[in-house]
Amino acid sequence: MTTIQNPRKKSHSKGSSRRWSAQVTATSDATHPPDGLFKKDAATIARTLASKKVSPKGVASGMRMLTFYINRAGHNLSATRRRELEKAKELLHRRVETARKRAA
User: Residue 84 falls within a domain, yes or no?
Assistant: First the structure.
């Protein structure tokens, strides 16, 4: 008796470079975060990502960049670095909420 396997089912081992995020090498042309930005303190990260120069589409796009970076770095982040990035995310979230209240 032969077993028919699902041809659409793909197995990815942990750390595989076949994931779509492994292919990403740069942000879009609309966003330009400076090199080494995500290695700085939370206040600097939040302030820079909120600026029109880095996030021309608004603070929310800066928040998406930070979230993508945190998700992509994954297990390679130390606990202290992750805490600092989460703190920057919270600061950005406050700015997004403030911007939404002003717009309403």
Answer: yes
